[in-house]
Design goal:
alpha/beta; Aspartate Aminotransferase, domain 2; Aspartate Aminotransferase, domain 1; 16% strand; binds pyridoxal-5'-phosphate
Length: 360
């Protein structure tokens, strides 16, 4: 069976051994005579999957005991509003750093349900960089600051967290568990599973328990984090299949050396690409400021659109797939998430060098 080199920005490539194991036990899980997705979420088999995935996530990300770990639905998109509903009372306010498409969406949705403001915008620099501490305009009595740790479309990431003296709330969807998290600095972290950790349909929220239950709002059951925390995210039927597969991915990550190793691999993969870009005399060009370059989503342009189309066509013929940049940015986007083999990146960079030789 042929497998392509899949550089999709999400859903993303997953470890082959996880897919194979999932396939092998799909029809008959643990000798139960049925698939895990047909079984009760209150049954022994599934409850164990849920508890193991929660425990594995805590170990990998070193989540402190005073943080709740929640497995929810609605994607990172629902979290844009749900975070603000749960962490802000009507009279309170939060600041938002707008580093690009996702930062902007978070800000817009939160502003529909709470009193928030834009503390920094990357618009003047075409969303190619992250702010320094002194550029972030914090108003007095701001409860927390929202950031997007990695902008999936713009290819911009916070290399260092902004050094503010209020807690951070972060959308980490596209660099989730690709580097360690300094929990002291956060009240809440969230991320969709489908960029680094598993299939779509699952979002992970990690929230400081101390900050819960203070919103004073009359929230519907599902929207209240406390409901999920009190029930180990089994208060209603959870997204069983994505949690089951993510559990396997987390196990695979633990077996392969944990976050330190995946951070190292992310450095290796992205350096391979940035080296080719930087050694091409501007033929391949990255729009992103050097110290804000993403290790997960690498964006670059060729000298013109005709060359870009030819590049994508020839890449596809070599099974280098899903490289077209987002329609708002154009060019090429390579997404190098946790399960992307270094060998696949080498095949891509060799192709880039050949393409430059032939067309440059
Ligand atoms: C993909 C993505 C989202 C949206 O996730 P959904 O699961 O589709 O709602 C939000 N933020 C970032 C940074 C993303 O990469």
């Amino acid at each position: 069976m042929k497998r392509v080199h899949n550089f999709s920005a999400g859903p993303c490539t997953l470890p082959l051994e996880v897919l194979e194991e999932t396939q092998s036990e799909f029809l008959n899980f643990a000798g139960n005579g049925m698939s895990i997705i047909e079984d009760s979420h209150r049954g022994y088999s599934y409850e164990k999957i849920q508890q193991d995935a929660l425990a594995s996530f805590r170990r990998l990300a070193d989540v402190p005991d005073d943080f709740a770990l929640l497995f929810l639905q609605g994607g990172a998109t629902l979290q844009f509003a749900q975070t603000a509903m749960n962490l802000l009372a009507e009279s309170e306010t939060a600041g938002y750093v707008n580093t690009g498409v996702w930062g902007q969406k978070a800000l817009e949705d939160a502003s529909k349900v709470a009193n928030i403001y834009e503390a920094w915008s990357g618009e003047d620099t075409s969303f190619t960089t992250t702010p320094n501490r002194n550029e972030i305009g914090l108003k007095e009595d701001t409860k927390w600051l929202h950031i997007t740790s990695n902008e999936t479309i713009g290819g911009v990431r916070f290399r260092h967290l902004p050094d503010v003296d209020i807690p951070l709330v972060a959308d980490m969807s596209s660099d989730f568990l690709s580097r360690s998290i300094d929990w002291d600095k956060f009240d809440l972290v969230y991320g969709g599973a489908q960029k680094n950790l598993g299939p779509a349909g699952l979002v992970i929220v990690i929230v400081r328990r101390e900050s819960l239950g203070k919103h004073g709002r009359n929230l519907p059951t599902y929207l209240d984090y406390q409901f999920h925390d009190e029930n180990d995210s089994l208060g209603n039927t959870p997204p069983m299949f994505p949690i089951y597969v993510m559990g396997k991915v987390l196990g695979w990550m633990e077996k392969n050396g944990g976050l330190e190793e995946f951070e190292r691999r992310a450095e290796i993969r992205s350096s391979l690409l940035y080296e080719v870009i930087d050694n091409s005399d501007g033929w391949y060009s990255s729009p992103v400021a050097t110290d804000s370059r993403s290790l997960m989503n690498i964006i670059f342009h060729l000298p013109d659109e005709t060359l870009e189309s030819r590049f994508l066509e020839e890449a596809t013929a070599l099974d280098l797939i899903n490289l077209k940049g987002h329609r708002s940015v154009g060019g090429v986007r390579t997404s190098l998430y946790n399960a992307m083999p270094v060998e696949s990146v080498e095949i891509l960079t060799n192709f880039m060098k050949d393409f430059l030789k032939t067309n440059g």
